[in-house]
């Protein structure tokens, strides 16, 4: 189950010593975490946010009210747009490429949970892109390469090659 | 009704009928009279028109040229209409590119291949208004003979190749009339593909062009097609000249053969009297037999037939192969060097002598100029694998290169070495034909090579197995019926020199040199699984 592997990787990144035991529910195998006496936590994003708080790394959820809102927006985007396959991949890449034109991270000026979960979510798409397509979505590729090289983030996913030099410079190919 | 009444009625009817008939006759008579009057009037007008047409002997549709006569008349070429000829009365034959009446004048543009000139028929003491009308109505592409005075123009005529002069026509005759509806409009065919869509004007699609090649090849204004095929002619000539200078002999090889030379799958079968034969997929076997016959170095230029059901931008079922084969002393790199040097001479010859054609083509089909290194870049297969793996491609050591990987490799090589032409040496043995010499040090590899232009393969070659024993082993390994290649193997039994070679496709080389994207553009009458005409 990809979601469970993501959570395991996230735990490692956060440096949580004791890995949690997760169960799943429903056909979609949504992850569930028993939460002592409180009601169980359901869903990748909910659990991930909980883990971040548990690890006492609140900055990963965003800086300031606006920053936190942007992080939540991207976490929602991950689950509703990316995972659900409701939108065509090309338009997701196009939107993301435009958004990342002038940004290093998805929210604010440092790595947040938004970057990590979007990286996990979009990995299989980027893995299948041809060199030419990675050049076409150059900002997405740049952000992706940056995140996958961030210490401690990658874990369960194979590295994707992103070339530094442009091979397809002119429009004739 | 009583009989009397009936009779009476009939009589009335008859009377009525005869009245009707009379009226009808009268009407018809009137009509006939009117018609006769009209005809008489027309005839009279025509006569007066003829009488008024003082120029009627100076224009018209000529009788079909059936070699009736040998007039003592020199025809001037349009390209020679320069200020030097001003005030001379000349004859020329050209196509009507356009003709446009404007009041008492008719402006024509007369065209010969890529050259055109403005011409004028004006009502005056040489031309009547009927003559001007005639000129304006000549259909486009018709061939005309024209006698005209060459006149200087004050302002350069920008839209014609001959900008300093125009013709004042005194006589004009149609030698061959074109049908009024052309299957494609030349202005549309000449328009660069991208532009048309933007401005809502038509561009002509490839199939229409190919179906009407006779007109498509005329493409006047930019003469793209003419430029392409003139360049192609140059490639052949440079190939022949370079190899002849190197001491190669041109040979001709048979195209109807008894056994498929490259493997049974992609070969055309023809009926041969009571049995069957095949169309040659390459001159491979015959080139080699010539080497065994001590020709030392040979080349041949001829058709190659591949029954491959590939509908791609770079495959034809029939194309022109330029093939080389040579004996060498100790190392097959002597062969590679000879081939790459030949290619470089061709590239230089095109660059130095065909700039007009290259520029003409790039106006309609823009591309980067072709780059090459001296000496030619040669990479080993293992190096190429490393480059591809570094770019994220997963490939086994003995895998063949797929077309997308070939193209990616071409990009990586261009980025790293800045060349559009390179050699890839030491291919895995498993993916090469049975007659390829294995590498002496590593049985997984072979003494074979491919050459690439702009990332696409243009030549496949190798050192050939010249030992009959090894050749037999390799054939068995590839599960080839030895009976079918008995005479081929026999040619190596009586002393055979070590040798190697390769073959290129003329159309593909032209396409890639010019940076075009479809091999049909560089094949005059292309053949593919869906096209057998014209």
Would you give an account of this structure?
The complex is a heterodimer of chains A (173) and B (534). With 173 residues, chain A is mainly alpha-helical. Chain A has a single domain (2-149), classed as Glutathione S-transferase Yfyf (Class Pi), Chain A, domain 2 (Up-down Bundle), CATH 1.20.1050.10. In chain A, 51% of the residues lie in helices and 9% in strands. Chain A is built from seven helices and three strands; from the N terminus they run H-E-E-E-H-H-H-H-H-H. The longest helix of chain A is centred in the middle third of the chain and has 20 residues, at 64-83. Chain A starts with a helix and ends in a 25-residue tail after the last helix. The mean pLDDT of chain A is 90. Chain B is built from 15 helices and 17 strands. The radius of gyration of chain B is 35 Å and the shape is elongated. Chain A binds chain B through residues 130-131, 160-161, 163, 165-168, 170, 172, and chain B through 366-368, 390-392, 404, 408, 411-412, 414-415, 515. Chain A: InterPro entries: AIMP3/p18_C (IPR053837), Arc1-like_N (IPR053836), EEF1E1 (IPR042450), Glutathione-S-Trfase_C-like (IPR010987), Glutathione-S-Trfase_C_sf (IPR036282). Chain A: This is Eukaryotic translation elongation factor 1 epsilon 1. Chain A: It holds the Pfam family Arc1p_N_like. Chain A: One of its GO terms (biological process) is positive regulation of DNA damage response, signal transduction by p53 class mediator.
Short summary:
The complex is a heterodimer of chains A (173) and B (534). With 173 residues, chain A is mostly helical. Chain A is 51% helix and 9% strand.
């Amino acid at each position: 189950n990809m979601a469970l592997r993501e959570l395991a990787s996230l735990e490692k990144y956060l440096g949580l010593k004791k890995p949690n035991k997760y169960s799943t529910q429903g056909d979609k195998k949504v992850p569930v975490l028993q939460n002592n006496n409180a009601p169980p936590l359901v869903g990748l994003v909910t659990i991930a946010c909980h883990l971040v708080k548990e690890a006492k790394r609140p900055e990963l959820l965003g800086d300031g009210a606006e920053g936190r809102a942007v992080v939540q927006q991207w976490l929602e985007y991950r689950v509703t747009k990316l995972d659900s396959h409701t939108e065509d991949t090309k338009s997701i890449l196009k939107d993301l490429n435009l958004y990342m034109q002038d940004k290093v991270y998805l929210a604010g000026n440092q790595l947040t949970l938004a970057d990590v979960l979007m990286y996990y979510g979009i990995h299989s798409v980027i893995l299948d892109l041809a060199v030419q397509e990675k050049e076409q979505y150059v900002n997405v590729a740049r952000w992706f390469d940056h995140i996958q090289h961030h210490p401690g983030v990658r874990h369960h996913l194979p590295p994707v090659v992103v070339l530094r030099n442009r091979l397809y410079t002119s429009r004739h190919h | 009704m009583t009989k009397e009444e009936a009779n009476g009625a009939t009589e009335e009817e008859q009377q009525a009928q005869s009245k009707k008939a009379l009226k009808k006759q009268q009407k018809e008579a009137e009509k006939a009279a009117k018609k006769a009057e009209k005809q008489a009037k027309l005839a009279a007008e025509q006569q007066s028109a003829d009488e008024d047409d003082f120029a009627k002997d100076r224009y018209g549709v000529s009788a079909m040229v059936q070699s009736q006569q040998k007039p003592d008349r020199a025809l001037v070429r349009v390209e020679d209409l320069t200020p030097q000829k001003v005030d001379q009365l000349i004859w020329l034959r050209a196509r009507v590119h356009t003709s446009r009446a404007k009041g008492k004048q008719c402006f024509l543009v007369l065209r010969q291949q890529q050259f055109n000139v403005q011409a004028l028929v004006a009502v005056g003491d040489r031309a009547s208004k009927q003559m001007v009308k005639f000129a304006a109505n000549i259909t486009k592409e018709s061939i005309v003979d024209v006698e005209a005075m060459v006149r200087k123009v004050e302002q350069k005529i920008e839209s014609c190749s001959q900008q300093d002069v125009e013709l004042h026509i005194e006589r004009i005759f149609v030698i061959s009339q074109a049908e009024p509806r052309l299957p494609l409009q030349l202005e549309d065919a000449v328009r660069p593909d991208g532009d048309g869509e933007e401005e809502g004007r038509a561009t002509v699609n490839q199939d229409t062009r190919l179906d009407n090649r006779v007109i498509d090849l005329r493409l006047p204004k930019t003469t793209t097609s003419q430029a392409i095929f003139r360049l192609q002619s140059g490639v052949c000539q440079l190939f022949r000249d370079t190899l002849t200078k190197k001491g190669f002999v041109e040979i001709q090889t048979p195209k109807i053969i008894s056994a498929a030379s490259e493997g049974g799958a992609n070969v055309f079968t023809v009926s041969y009297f009571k049995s069957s034969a095949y169309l040659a997929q390459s001159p491979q076997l015959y080139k080699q037999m010539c080497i065994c016959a001590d020709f030392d170095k040979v080349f041949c230029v001829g058709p190659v037939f591949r029954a491959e059901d590939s509908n791609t931008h770079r495959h034809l079922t029939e194309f022109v192969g330029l093939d080389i084969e040579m004996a060498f002393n100790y190392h097959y790199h002597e062969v590679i060097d000879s081939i790459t040097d030949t290619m470089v001479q061709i590239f230089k010859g095109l660059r130095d002598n065909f700039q007009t054609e290259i520029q003409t083509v790039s106006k309609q089909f823009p591309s980067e100029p072709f780059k090459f290194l001296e000496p030619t870049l040669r990479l080993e297969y293992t190096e190429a694998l490393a480059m591809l793996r570094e770019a994220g491609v997963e490939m086994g050591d003995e895998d063949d290169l797929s077309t997308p990987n070939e193209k990616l490799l071409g990009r990586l090589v261009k980025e790293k070495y800045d060349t559009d032409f390179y050699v890839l040496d030491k291919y895995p043995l498993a993916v090469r034909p049975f007659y390829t010499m294995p590498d002496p040090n590593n049985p997984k590899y072979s003494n074979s090579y491919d050459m690439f232009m702009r990332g696409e393969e243009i030549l496949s070659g190798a050192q050939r197995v010249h030992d009959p024993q090894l050749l037999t082993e390799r054939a068995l390994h590839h599960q080839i019926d030895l009976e079918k290649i008995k005479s081929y193997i026999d040619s190596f039994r009586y002393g055979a020199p070590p040798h190697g070679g390769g073959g290129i496709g003329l159309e593909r080389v032209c396409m890639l040199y010019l940076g075009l994207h479809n091999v049909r553009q560089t094949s005059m009458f292309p053949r593919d699984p869906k096209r057998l005409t014209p």
